[in-house]
Amino acid sequence: MSPPKVVLAYSGGLDTSVAIPWLKEHKGLDVVAVTVDVGQPVDLERVRTKAKASGAVAAHVADARREFADEFLAPALRANALYEGVYPLSTALARPLIGRHLVEVAHREGAAAVAHGCTGKGNDQVRFDLSTTSLAPELEVIAPAREWGMSREQEIDYARAHQVPVEATAASPYSTDENLWGRSVECGVLEDPDVEPPEAAYGWTVAPAEAPDSPTYVRLVFEKGLPVSMDGRPLPFHELIARLNQLAGSHGVGRIDHVESRVVGIKSREVYECPAAVVLIRAHQALEGLVLPRDVLEFKRTVEQRYAQLIYDGLWFSPLRTSLEAFVQVTQERVSGEVTMKLFKGSATIAGRRSPHSLYQPSLATYSTGDRFRQEMSEGFIYVWGLPARTWAAQTPSTASAPPRTAKYRP
Ligand code: ARG
């Protein structure tokens, strides 16, 4: 009888490579490595080879870029999901997808456990654990890095002693994570939130000061809340994102410096580069502003905040997330039209927007000839609208009705 199996989320880095012999040695488990392509720029064949070389009994690689865009990024964009108002949740959105792949492979391989390389201090452990538990409560989740207590140097020694290939490349001072929706950077000097991120921390964006001296305009056509073409060229969502990352990144757009409140209670300083996400969310919001009534916009904003927090907190596969998704989905029925964005020296601004469902009526908005708004009706409206204010004021010994406390009146 061969040993029981564990399905490991494998990135090809040092932690997850060391995890392979560690799971064998300490848990008696054979490791099936799973690497999910969510748009990170790595050579997946090399990753597969390295998994095998590190002792995995099998190594699966899944191209999930389309699935990631259509099933995770699309709902996030429709919800304008920004954690604490700034972070487009790039890393957070990939975790439930990877979790789902782990569960699928675990079922296929008859494994009793899944594993990941997250430490016990971050959000990603929460997201992996909760996604897999929500989808397959019977599976055990093992996080070797939460248990082994090894420093980086000890990990390298452990790797050498267990025939795990150790790359000779100079270790970067930063810890990064990348996918279609963005790149996150932590560690090194970034751990001081009062130090400006050095240029070397950035990988996807040019410094705004070095960006081209003339702007680029990009025209995005949306259908029901999602972009379907860029500058007249129809593109599948995942390809549009990849192209927009290039274009906006070349103008220095999408840099985010965030002191973030982690699920486990720690404040951490995170630097992100999310060119496409920033442009698309801004464009989407602009279109919504044109086609959605005020009360829907306002209510949606509270839903969006909660939605973003659920993603951050690892609750993608939860009844509340699904329910909020239903609300968001209905609001997108008329979010179709065209938005032109101007990319220039680190900024992405709205240059224009139009829609067949536009609620903007020139004859009501204009201050020129052709005004159809009946201004005389406003007086009656304001009389009734202001009634509660007047009633309240009449009952309140108000400072407003007292003589102004200017120097003249002071004793
Ligand atoms: N703080 C971000 C988040 O929680 C980024 C985490 C980056 N993860 C990583 N394994 N490097 O979403």
Number of helical segments with 4 or more residues: 14
CATH fold-level topology of the largest domain: Argininosuccinate synthetase, chain A, domain 2
Strand numbers in spatial order across the main sheet: 3-2-1-4-5
Helix and strand pattern:
EHEHEHHEHEHHEEEEEHEEHHHEEHHH
Rg of Cα set: 26 Å
Summing up helix and strand content along with how strands pair, one would put the structural category as alpha/beta
Bound molecules: arginine
Strand content: 15-25%
Fraction of residues in H or I helices: 40-55%
Number of domains: 2
Q: Report the sheet with the most strands, covering strand number, pairing sense and barrel closure.
A: 5 strands, parallel
Oligomer classification: single chain
**CATH C-level name of the largest domain:** Alpha Beta
What is the number of strand segments? 14
Give the overall form.
elongated
Mean pLDDT: 95
CATH superfamily grouping of the largest domain? Argininosuccinate synthetase, chain A, domain 2
Ends distance:
98 Å
Stretches where pLDDT falls below 50 for ≥5 residues?
none
